[in-house]
Design goal:
By secondary structure, the chain is of the alpha/beta class. The protein contains seven helices and eight strands; from the N terminus they run H-E-E-H-H-E-H-E-E-E-H-E-H-E-H.
């Protein structure tokens, strides 16, 4: 099912670039991980979904989602792959801002108060956007206790999320995808 080695190969081939970059967190880096090159590719998206489903194990949440736009293709891949495996999970999207029209919701999707939710993310550096997404999902009434990212490039990610009662894990640590190159 989950071919971790193939996913790592695809990360090396398509998602990592070396140079001088400014990250969303404002930090400077000598490499950039563009996981959209993976999450918007059929093969890689399925491998990511398989990796997340493998990490979930038998403790299926009611729903999976995260902050738009980065988490959207991950969510779509996970709910599709889970359904194909006979493990139905609903999906949801957390908007950066509540809609100014319609229902004005910040969390969209077929989820209801009290359901368990797994948050997903492409790359974690400081965790800022994921912490916001977790807060909004909880405000919506979801029970969020876990977050899975494709790549953890942070130094203290597990501790950051533990402070808000969320278990954090990643399919890869940044040292695996950079082969020790870059900062």
């Amino acid at each position: 099912m989950y071919n971790r080695e193939r996913l790592l190969e695809l990360i090396h081939q398509h998602a990592i670039r070396f140079g001088d970059f400014t990250l969303a967190s404002g930090q400077k880096a000598t490499y950039y991980l563009d996981c959209r090159q993976l999450t918007l590719d059929g093969e890689a998206a399925n491998l990511i979904a398989d990796g997340i489903i493998h990490a979930i194990g038998d403790q299926l949440p009611d729903a999976v989602g995260g902050m738009a736009i980065g988490a959207d293709p991950i969510t779509a891949a996970v709910i599709t792959r889970a359904w194909q495996l006979g493990k139905p999970i609903k999906g949801f999207i957390v908007r950066k801002e509540a809609k100014g029209h319609g229902t004005g919701q910040q969390v969209e999707g077929p989820v209801t108060t009290g359901q368990t939710a797994l948050m997903v993310e492409d790359v974690i550096t400081t965790g800022g956007s994921s912490l916001k997404a977790i807060a909004h999902a909880r405000e919506h009434g979801l029970t969020v206790e876990r977050l899975i990212a494709i790549v953890d490039r942070g130094e203290h990610s597990a501790e950051v999320f533990a402070e808000v009662g969320v278990k954090f894990e990643a399919l890869f640590h940044v040292s695996e995808v950079t082969d020790g190159k870059g900062t």
